[in-house]
Structures are given as C-alpha cells and as structure tokens.
Protein 1
Amino acid sequence: MEADMTADCSIAELLACFIARDLNDGEELQVGIALPIPEAAVRLAHLTHGPNMELIFLGARMNVHHLDHLPMPAFGWDNRVVRWTESFSDRGHRFDQVKDWHRRVFFVGGIQVDPHGNTNLIGVGEDYRRLRFRGPGSVGTPTLTTHVGRYYIVLNSHTPRVFVPRCDFISTVGWGEGGADARRQLGLPGGGPKYCITPLCIMDFTEDDKRLRLKSLHPGVTLDAVRARTGFDLVIPDHVPETAAPSAEELRMLRSRVDVTGALRRM
Amino acid sequence: MSGARSERLVDEDAAVALLESGMTIAIGEPTPMALVRQIVRRELRDLVVIASGLALDMLIAAGCVRKTLSYYAGGGFGVPVAPSFRRAAERGDIEVWECDEGILTSGLEAAGKDLPFLPWRGGVGTSLPAVNPDLKLITDPVRGETLLAVPAIRPDVAILHAAQSDAFGNVQHHGGPGWIDLFLQRAATRCIVQVERIVSNEAIRANPWATTIGRADAVVRLPWGAHPWYSRGWHVQDSPFLADYVAAATAAAERDEREALERWLDHWCREPATHTDYLERVGLRRLLALHEY
C-alpha cells in the first residue's frame, strides 16, 4: 500500500514535499501568484510541522493550522481568503516593515536563470523595446528578494533556454556576479536564494563562488540529461544522490488535505 | 446659517465624464470594471495606465493605452502573460514603464507626500534602472548606500471599487481595500470610487475607523460593478467569464484572429450603454451564483 502510493508520486508532488521539509516552524512563508508547488508546500509544512508558521498570500497573513485541510489552489487569489486572514498588510503599509523580513521565506519563478541564481521575469531579447518574448514583469520580486531571509527559485521547466550563461534582463539578484559577499557588496540585506528547484533536479550554490551546484537528481533523471538541458556548466559534486522521495504519510497529507483536486498530480 | 453640504454622489455619466483621453489613470484592485468598460465604450485614447490583469489587457486590446506603469501583467487571470499586453509590448505599440510593487508604491508615496522622489532598495542590482531610465541609482547622503530614486508618480485620476460610501465621499471597504488602492488614492489628483451601496452619513459616523477613504472626489453607485472580478464581502470572481476573455484575446494576440475579441468588446463594453444594461446581459442567474456567502 505504502509502496504503491509513493511509486506514483508526481514530480510536482515530490518537489512540494521537498520544499515543505525545508521550512521551519515559526517562519513566515510568503507565496505569490502562479506558483502551485510552493503554494502546496507551505500548506503541507504548516499542517505537518508548522503550528507557528504564518502563511502570507498577497498581503493576507494567516495561521490556519487548526483547519482540517487547506485546499489548493490558491485561496490567495480568492477573496474568501478574508475568512482565514488575521491581518492584512494591504492598508497602505505593505512595505513598511521590510526590516523584519529576515524571518520571511519567499519563492520566485523565472523565464531565465544564470549560473549565480539571478533571474528574469522581464522578457527575452536584446532590445528592451522589441522583446522577442515579453514576460509578465517582476511583480514584487525585486523588493521581496532584496529583503527576505532566504528564497527558493522554483521553475516549471529545465531547458537551455531557461538556464542561460547571462540573463537578458535581471529582475531579481541572486548572487550577482558571484562570490560569498556579492549581496553584501550590492547592499542587499536578505539572505539570497538557497535552492533552485526544477522538474529534473535540486541545485544549491557553492559556498565560495555562489555558483549553481547540483544537489540531487529526481528519480529516473540522469546526470547527462541535466547537463544537456543546462546552458552552462553546473558544478557537479562527486556524489549526487537521488532527491528523497516523500513518505507515505507526507503524500497522504498532501493529497487528502492540501491538493484535494489533484492539481500537482496532473502537472 | 446658510447653504448645504455638497454631495459627492454622482451618476454613472458624470463619473465617466471626469475621465479624458491622454490622462494618467490609476485603476485599483478589486477592479472598478464598470468604469473601465465605459473607458472602452467612450473610446478614450492615449491613456497612461497603472493597472494589471483584465483591466490592463482589455484597455490595451481596445486601443486606449499609450503607456503603462507595470509591475505585473500575467498569471492572476489564468495566463502566464496577459495576451494583449504581451503583443503590444513586443511590437512597441505601447510604452512600458518597468517597475515592481515596492518601486511603484514608493513613487505613489512620493506624490502623496509632495516629494520629488523617495529612495527604495528593491531593484538595486537588477536591470530595472537600465530599462527604466526614470529610476536613478543614487548614493544616499546619510549612510552612503546605493539606492534607487523613484520619481513621484501622480495619476490624474484614481478609479477604485469599494463596498460602501455615504453621499459625501466617505468610503468604507468590506474586508479591506485592495493592496494598492490607498496608495493610488493618496497619490492621485482626483479619486472616483464606485461602490456597491450608498449608506447614510450616520452609518459612517457609527464606525469612522472603518472609513478607508475620507472625501473621495466622486462616488458612484454601481452594484456588481467589479464583475467579472470579485468584490470583497459581496461576490467572488466569475472565472469562466475571465476565461472567455483570455481565449478571445489570445486568439487575437497570437494568431491575429481579432473577430472573437472584437465581438467580446462589443458585447460587453461597447453596446451596453449603462452598467444596468451590462448587468442585464450578464443575467441575474449568473450574478446570484457568484454570491460570496
């Protein structure tokens, strides 16, 4: 029974469980739009081991540990969020307390990522006035990633078009031009990106250069596949483990209490 | 003793008459869609808009927009990038003033405080000052840090949607204003608020702490006026309605098939002369099914 359940776990479910485990009780977890995996992850973490976590969706702050389930998708985008909200930062002071964001955790997507974890939501092309692909814009990510204690880069695809030697435009600074003090030199108080998470693998950053390094491969993914689909040289350690599978209990919680419509299973 | 206090309650025509081609119009969230539809219907042109989501995309699709101050045009209504925005930006048909939420609110706060600029840190190290030359990198004179100077952003008009107001423009939101609404109101030269209902001045004075905007310049009663978006405390968003728009706008943007989009704009924006005409087209059954509680 348990073997069956974890065997048919989707990659999106695997990633949601991976992220959930990396979140600590007491943290503030802010998720923006169009990031279903982090949305599921923060709910799962809140239910499994985070009675003192605070979830923040679009300025609505809540602790809903007492609820039987925290359904997906997005009560952040549904105005009924007010039913669970304890306070709003909407009332003209959304950015008035960034000094305390060191205890906040955040998530960003991207249409391009470079070797130092700088990301791009602006667009693709040489000429800003004539982009080949106009992206959605940076939302609040430049401000959030400047200040939050740490963030995760979460991507829906892993291709050479996404992983590029240089972003055409940078909307969030990861580790700039590289180096452990890159952010301090730029005057960015936040802790920077911790992991870069894709459908193929998990990456972290080397301690000295702050360059993307392979941390684990998802089940069935080869090192060659990751190399072929990354547009620059990743740092590859001698030993690359497989990304840890969710436990049967984590999957049960995820499916029955968070992702009740099976959105992550279908991704 | 002489005279009477002037009411700020106006009808739909008078509210829309305050909006003109060429203006900078800031559009709140939840979205004052009834007023946005009237902008399309009256064919205002060369607008500079602060908006996102459906309102932004629809106004671009209808040819009303010259420039947008944009932090985000995507995901919130079911597409990665708003289709008409994407096409117009890629072709250079509209100018984009690239920013993020923290930068935008800094510029709005500067206007409200009557300052030339306010400093902001978010965006330092990014491409934002390169693609938006209005954002200047400066060295702060106190601690010597590198920061962005965000120039004051002063919209001619902010248009907002809220729960209720009295006849004198004392506006109260149910469940709180949208995240940017009060920034827009404080920065704008004038503020027009469409509301679900008008209440007595006594009802406002019974709970003045609930007043989110004192003295809006004009209030107009447009119940269900945020449809197809949500209106907090009143109704949820009409997702299938939004999906219809996205399909039509995507066909126009990606395949140059404008027929469905024009039909959508005609049917929902250009043909209904008033908000009531619009609501009759939407239909009572559909509206009642959206009730929040």
Protein 2
Amino acid sequence: MRHQSVGYHIKKSLIYLFLIALAVTCMIPFMMMMVNATRDGNEILTGFSLIPSVHLKENWDTVFSYFNLFLGMRNSVLVAIPATLLSAYFSTLTAYGLAFYQFKGNKVIFIVILVFMMIPGQLSLIGFYQLCSKLKLVNSYIPLIVPAIAAPGTVFFLRQYILSTLPKSLVEAARMDGANELFSFHRIVIPIVSPAVATMGIMGFIGNWNNYMLPMILINKNEKMTLPVMMATLRASQDITRNQGATYLSVAISVIPILLVFAVFSKYIISSVSAGAVKE
Amino acid sequence: MAEAKTVKRKRSKLTAYNNWGYFFVAPFVIVFLIFSVYPVLRTLYLSFTDLKLVGKGNWIWFANYKRVLTDKFFWRALGNTFTIWGVNIVLQLGLAFLLMVIFSDVKYKMKGLRFFRIVYYLPNLIAATSIAFLFSTFFMYPYGDFNNMLVAITNLFGKIFQRRDWIGSSSTAWVVIAVIQSWMWFGNSFLMLMAGVQGISKDYFEAAAIDGAGRWTIFTKITLPLIRPILMYVAITSLIGGIQMFDLPYLMVSASTASYGRVQTAMMYLYKFGFTVGTTQVGYASSIAYTMFMIILVFSIAEFMFFNRKKED
C-alpha cells in the first residue's frame, strides 16, 4: 500500500465527522424524547438538557389519566400480528402458485399485480370505506387484517425470489416420491424461501403497526383504537400538550416497541430495503 | 402407440399438477377482488355521481371533474404538496446521493457502513403520528426545545434570538415539514442506492483501476450509469408517496392555525370531502382521488422518460 499524505487523513477525518454529525441528528430527537419524558413542563421550558430528571412518575400519571396507551398497544398487536402472518403465508402460497404452475390466467394475474403495485392507495380508500360500512365492518378489525391476504408487492417480490432460488427438480423429486403438492409446499418451499418471507414479514409488521390513515377512518371507538390513532387524539388534550414532559413520555412509550423490534431484526430490515431496490 | 399413450398420460398428469395452481392462488384472487379491485372501481363509479353521504346519488358524468379542475383550493393544496415534496426530495436524494458517493469512493474506503446505515434508517421506522408529536413539541412556540436551543446558541455569541412560531407561521411551517420528511426518508434512499452500488460487479472497478481510470471517471462511467435504474425507482416511489402526503401536516398543523392554508396537502383536501363530518361529498372526493392519480401517472411517465432518455447519450 502506498503511503497516504497528511491531507488525505485530514479529509478522511472531516468526512467521518460529517457522518457522525448526521448520525447524531438521527438519534438526538430520540434521546431528547427519553430525557424529556423524565422532566416536568417547567424544566423543559427553562432549557434544553440531556440529563434526566425525576418527574417520570408524574408524567406517567398525567398520560395514563388521559388514555391507556397499553390498551392501544394491545389493539395494535391484535391487528398487526394476524395481518403479518396472513400476508406472509398467503403471499408465499400465491407467489409459489404463480411461479411454478402453468395454468390459464396465470399471466393475467401477474399483470394485474404489477398494475396494482403502481396504483396509489387513495384510489381505493373511498370505495373501501363504503364497502366496509355496507358490510357493517366499521369498528371491526377485519378490514384491517383480512386484506393482508392479498398484498401485491409482497407476492411480486416472493415470486421473483422463488424463481431465482428454488430448483424445480426439488419439487419434481418430491412428486416422484408421491408427495402431495400442498405437502411439498409446506415441507420444501417454505423452508427454502423463509429468509425472504421473514424479511417481508418484518417490514409488513412495521407498516401495519405504524399505519394511521386506514385505522383512523375505520375505528372511532376509543377502546378499539390502535396505538397511532390513540396517539393522534393527543392533539385534543390540553392537559397533556400543555405539559411537554407528558407529551414526550407518550411518544416515548409508543416508540419503544418499534425500537426493540429494530434492535433485534435490524439485519433483516436493512436487507429488505436493499432488496426492494434490486428487484427492479 | 404405447409411447404415445405414456406421453399423453404424462401430459394429463402434468395438467393435473398445474391445476394445483388455481388452488394456490385462489385465496389471493378472492380477497384481492373484494378488497382491492372492487373498491378501486367503486371509487371510479362514485366519481361520476353527486353522492354526498348516504344513498345512491345521481349519475352526473364529468361534472365533478370539471369542478376539480376549476377548484382553486384543490390546486392550492396540490401546489402545497408539490412544494413540500420538492424541498423534501432535493434534501433527501441529495443527502442519500452524497452518502453513496462517500461510501463507494475507491480512494477513501470509508468504514462503518453497517453501523451508519442502521442509524440513518432509524427515523424511518417510527410511526408518523409519533414523529408528528415529537416535532410539534420540539418546535413549540415560544418555549419549545428548538427555540430554547437557538436562544442558548445565540447567547454564546452575545446576541439575542427572537423566538419564532416555526409551525404556526406560513413562511416556515411547510419548510419544517419538508425537512422532517427528508429526515425520515434519506436513510431509506441511501440504503437503496447503496444496494445498487454493492450490486455492481467488483470486476468493473478492478478492470477500470488496471486501465488507470481516475476516481471521477470510475464514478461517472461505471457507478452512475449502473445505478440509474435504482435512482429512477427511488425518485418515482418517492413521488407517488409524496403526492399522498398526509400524516405529518395533518397532525402538526390544525385547521385553525395561520399556516394551514400553506401546508394543506391534496390528500388532506381529499380527506376533508371524503371523511370529515359536515363536509362529506363522497362523489367529489372520489373525483379528487382520480385526478390525483392522473397527475401521478403523468409525472411518473415523465420521470421514466427523463431517466431513460439519458441512458441513450
């Protein structure tokens, strides 16, 4: 290796400094949020600080006297987990069906999937709400869960993945041994594509967990609200918004589950975003 | 004869196998028809009716669309959407692009990509509702943390900072929202661009290095052309997402605030007619949805052509 000049090292250090500054910008709002969750309104008004204070309990009481965030969390779990599981299972099933079987209409379905991937959500929003109110599904979780069975983007991604990783001979060998097609799907296909399914599943979970607009439109009973919808009612509460510490605490409580998911699954999340780019 | 028979039997067995395909895609197709295809077509139908809230509504042909085209509040909302998105995409893509250049540079060989990309992606994971409240509190007037910080910093230089209502005033609110939006999304764009760079075969870079190509040549002749499809993908998805912007401005700026007219997005305008008690006009809201779709389509095609024309040079 060639010896590098002093200028090279200075420039390199400056670039690192920039990268670190940017990283701090990404993290500081969360650190501030955690710290301010322990400070009371007056302390926050008097100035910015990164040293925790002792008012966590008071803020906690203010927040929970207004709403039960844990109920919102439970509701979010009741929506996000079934939706994620259904989407993972049925998307894999559909993707495998499209990738491995030649049947009439296969191509048509695939083209329709491509078209719907490009159609923005607001086109279906009004019709969707009308359908739900006609079927008496307002304030029910069914419209938030069942449509996850048909996720065009996930199916498209998994179809491409199956075509590139699953050898046809494997399934054919199982046929020779007299295996049922559904059995082959469960025992051969699912294990092989599971990394891709997990990746899509985690992103799907985060998307469902954070989803705001659809649950806001469909759910208006307090005890059924998901976490983001419940958070949005904060705007109406003078008691909490007047006390900034309580606002920060409720944001912190709502953010922690996702931070945990991220800490555990960051590798999958990063690879799924990257995969999203390469699939084009 | 016997051979023909086995071929036939084989083929019928193969069709039998292939018929399993119907079984595998059936749940998807059924749910898709009910919850995706039907609502989209239903919205299209409603956009030609004068349905207000309940009942059937009358078929009024293109009257709603004529109204959208001449509705100056809709165009103002669309203008707001585009200016917020414009500032956002310049910052977001610019930063992502800069980071990609830094991490793909052959001379400096920066380390820590695995760490930085995770940190940069972090803001993208948090629900927009939480982000909205975090930053509403942060930018609060007069004693929010942002104002406090600016006061503390200007004090250091012996000056006095005039506290500002960042979200309440029209001149700053839309910029604040655009910056938050970029903060949320630059990590995502960066990851995508970086995936593109890492997908380029190392052979190209090595061959270029052997031929004595400089950093600039390698960047413009190899990296840039090969990540162009991803750049296009990022730009188009960001546009589609950007035109539907709703959560942040809706939650951060209430209708009674002075800056509302400057940050009301097209989607918020649609929401007003589609779902707000008292102003519901379902037919009109549907035509707004389809008008927005047409606009997205035109811009996506324009973007697509822009990126593809460059390729031929």
